[in-house]
Write a structure and sequence with these properties.
Blueprint: E1 5-8, H1 18-35, H2 43-61, H3 67-83, H4 89-100, H5 113-122, E2 126-132, H6 135-145, H7 148-151, E3 155-158, H8 163-172, E4 180-184, H9 187-196, E5 200-203, E6 225-227, H10 234-247
Parallel strand pairs: 1-2, 1-4, 2-3, 4-5, 5-6
Length: 248
């Protein structure tokens, strides 16, 4: 099989991520329920306000570590002003610390992550890691998961994953689009940019998906566009596509 260049997203493709944010949002909801109980505000309404604030910031300026905890504070201040409940510096500090706690959890790989990366490496493919977020936070995950042995210096981190940034990776590394793949869970930041850049794409839907990632695909694939449910399926799926392309 011809050598392929394979770019992997990290959060919710190789390592669990969204579920930890969801857990912290539940803790935030519990605090808001306790503090604003007498005002009878539906918790779903509070969660939606927080999600909307967080989403707006990410759309404007990408991923920054203070966005998430700040969304807690902004939501708290919104309802404090709406209800007339006095703000508390201690409560604001508690929310900031809660929001930041999401970045300190232990890493948890998706099933078959190590086996899949090992097999692809042994088959001679060149693996890249392409992830969005704060470089220091993301590199901690890379180190704790032991991912350097698969990706070496081919690790690309940006706060804002865009079609243009992916294009710069392809150009700067002189990647051949005909043998280059992007694998990720985000239709917005992984799959759409891959298709617009004319490379192969494998969509790995997350069980718990963030609204930010859900967009419609409006680009015609120039190569493979596959949807898989397990990392373990990737090597055979790539092999099968290449064999069909060679005989077709």
């Amino acid at each position: 099989m011809n050598k392929q260049t394979i770019l992997f997203d990290m959060d919710d493709t190789l390592l669990y991520c969204n579920k930890f944010f969801d857990l912290v949002v539940e803790q935030f909801s519990d605090l808001m329920e306790m503090w604003f109980h007498s005002f009878h505000i539906p918790m779903d309404e509070i969660k939606k306000k927080q999600a909307d604030i967080d989403l707006q910031r990410v759309e404007q300026s990408g991923f920054a570590p203070d966005h998430f905890p700040q969304s807690f504070i902004d939501t708290y201040e919104f309802y404090s002003e709406m209800t007339g409940r006095l703000k508390s510096e201690a409560e604001i500090l508690q929310l900031m610390e809660l929001g930041r706690s999401v970045y300190g959890h232990d890493i948890e790989p998706y099933p078959f992550m190590y086996e899949t990366l090992t097999r692809l490496t042994e088959e001679g493919h060149e693996l890249h890691l392409y992830t969005g977020g704060e470089p220091q936070v993301q590199m901690r995950k890379v180190t704790e998961a032991g991912l350097e042995r698969f990706f070496a210096d081919r690790i690309h981190i940006t706060r804002h994953k865009t079609t243009e940034y992916l294009e710069s990776i392809i150009r700067n590394n002189q990647l051949d689009r005909k043998v280059t793949w992007m694998i990720g869970n985000s239709l917005r930041t992984d799959i759409t940019p891959a298709l617009k850049n004319g490379i192969h794409a494998i969509f790995m839907p997350a069980l718990q998906e963030w609204a930010f990632n859900n967009v419609k695909i409006d680009t015609e694939p120039q190569g493979a566009f596959l949807t898989l449910s397990s990392l373990a399926e990737i090597p055979d799926a790539i092999r099968g596509y290449l064999e069909n392309a060679a005989t077709g």
